[in-house]
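Fig. S4 source data, part A: sequence.
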Amino acid sequence: MTLPHRSNAPSLSDPATLVRPVPTRRLWLLSAPALALGAWALSPRRAQAQMAAGLLEESDPGAQGLAYRADATKVDPAKNPSYKPGQTCASCSLYAGEAGRPQGGCALFYGKEVAAAGWCNAWERKAG
């Protein structure tokens, strides 16, 4: 008597063969460098987006919270006792704009540029 031939190939009628493998720690460790590379590849785009940012408005809630003025000569010393004549965004350590440009980035206002002639109450003397 002969038995019917059974193949070792997976059967579509067997539900155990249709289950997806569970992600393992090895799979996560192997995919981490790819994810890091993807994040690194996107970072220049974020920097370009910030460079193309608009000018910070004095009416912006963050600007109002720091008493930002686009023109430092219009700062009221009575309301801002820390202000001293001659302080501008261009002479602040938080200012990231190039010298001689009318506006540039600021560490406090990501995605917006501030006027080089502006001022806020977070002003700190630039080193040097």
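Fig. S4 source data, part B ends here. The mean pLDDT is 82.
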